[in-house]
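Hi everyone, sorry if this is the wrong subforum. Our group has a chain we'd like a structural model of before ordering constructs, and none of us has done structure prediction before. Sequence below.
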Amino acid sequence: MNDQKSISPRAWAELMLLGLLWGGSFLAIRIALDEVPVITMVLHRTGWAALVLWGLVWALRLPVPRTLRVWGAFVVMGLLNNVIPFGLMGWGQLHIESGLTSILNAATAVFAVLISAAIFADERLTARRAIGVGIGFAGVALAIGADAFRSFDIRSTAQLAVLGGAVSYGFASAWARARLSALPPLVAAAGMLTTSTAILFPAALLIDGPVRLGLEPRTWAAIAYYALFATALAYLIYYRVVAMAGSANLMLVTLLIPPVAIVLGALVLGETLQPLAFAGFAFLALGLLILNGTLFRRRD
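Answer:
Right subforum, don't worry. Here is the predicted structure as tokens:
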């Protein structure tokens, strides 16, 4: 399957905006985690974003699914695309830098290619894709660093948690194609976030205790950013870019996110990354460009 389209200037602009929004989310999440526990942090993200998207669904008079089959698909999608990855990556950010989290998050595209190749007949793992996957995994190994393999500690666990979130995103991509592709994107996103919130609310009460609303203004500003801008608005831009440039070109956003997250982490949080982390990102970027087809303009 070749989903390669040319990228118009408008699509590039929106792709870059999406990279800025998602890149900034790593800083906002880390700030919120100073006062809000992990599960509650994720609950804020899905809950407020769901309210905004349902408001748009109502304003646009889009049909709301009523069958158990569709809502069951929303439950699975919510787990794979929100509850599991947001939770794992949020916990990971408590123990590793936000910039490193964003680099490991870029492995999502590599995992998605492998998972799709295993599930869909038209997503076969060609020679080009196999090379891209191999280089991408080399980048992941470099970013994690040899020390993590020699001495397993909380930092190593956090990096594995972030990679677990990336794997979950990969399965979510395949699930969305298999079960939700017939729905309007806005309805699918709203339904997914709603079921995620329904799962997270009792989990937050059980694990974190009652949800506190008396938070510092800095924390509320961070929540507002990652819930309203980096989730609700980002989903709208995401689907616009897919329509304009195709899902293969959308993969390029994973190259735009880490530089934003790294710079913001350094400026605001005083984070520093090891040189191997940047080398790992360079390998990941090369692997993703190969997977995307940017370096090989021919059909598989």
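For your construct planning: The chain is about 80% helix and 0% strand. Residues 9-292 form one domain.
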